[in-house]
Amino acid sequence: MGMKEDRLKHLPSSKIIAHRFSEGKYCDYPADIVCRAVNKYDFNYNPTTIPIELSFFQILSANFSAFKFLYDNYTEENIEDFLSSPEEFFNKHNVEVSVPFDKESPKIIVALIERDIRPFLESEDGYREILRYDDREKSDKNWFYRHKERYPEWYLSENHCIHSLDKVPYFFSTELVKQYGFPASFVYTIEHIAHYLSEKTRK
């Protein structure tokens, strides 16, 4: 339910809302009002101590070293351990996790690093190749046919990002993925694949 109209008229200023969040103080203001406030004022926000809900790509960006470790050490045992408890899994392997994984991001990450999708992630032309791949005949050998799960559109949008979060890049960048040995096109390829899992594609 939305906030009552009379209460909306008495909200504090955007600067006060942003400052409260920088101090780790909880509030129940509408998310769009909070996001506009924290994006407008460059305080040092810490998403590990305040209730800011990150989108998938900001979680992925912040924890990309952890993503790469799982990518390079893909085994059924590791995937099971990761899904069971992401933080414990990476702690055991001495891999830094900058922000906590939420409930959905581990499942999406595992889907995005399956063996049959990797050639496209690693290819300079992966984005164009993936457009042809998702038109293949429907079968369990087709990643797009296998994955029926869907997530909120905003959550899988690279445009839903919050400024000035401690240890969280503002957007998912080609510079970041190239540091870990992926081609620049990795960003566009993985965004395309992730968008397939958003609710807007449901028929």
Task: List descriptors.
disordered N terminus; 203 residues; single chain; mainly alpha; globular
In short:
The protein is mainly α and 203 residues long. Helix content is 47%, strand content 0%.
Textual characterization of the structure:
The chain has 203 residues and is mainly α. The chain has 13 helices and no strands. The two termini are 26 Å apart. Residues 1-5 have low confidence and may be disordered.
Low-confidence stretches: 1-5
Question: What's the alpha carbon Rg, rounded to whole Å?
Answer: 19 Å
Mean pLDDT: 82
Class from secondary-structure proportions? mainly alpha
- Shape descriptor reads globular
> Span between N and C termini?
26 Å
Secondary structure: number of strands: 0
Q: Could you spell the SSE succession in H and E letters?
A: HHHHHHHHHHHHH
Number of helices: 13
Report on the biggest sheet: none
Percentage of β-strand residues? under 5%
Query: Helix share of residues?
Result: 40-55%
What is the strand and helix layout of this fold?
Elements: H1 5-8, H2 14-22, H3 31-40, H4 56-62, H5 64-72, H6 76-84, H7 86-92, H8 105-112, H9 118-121, H10 126-133, H11 143-146, H12 174-179, H13 186-196
Helix pairs in contact: 2-3, 6-7, 10-13
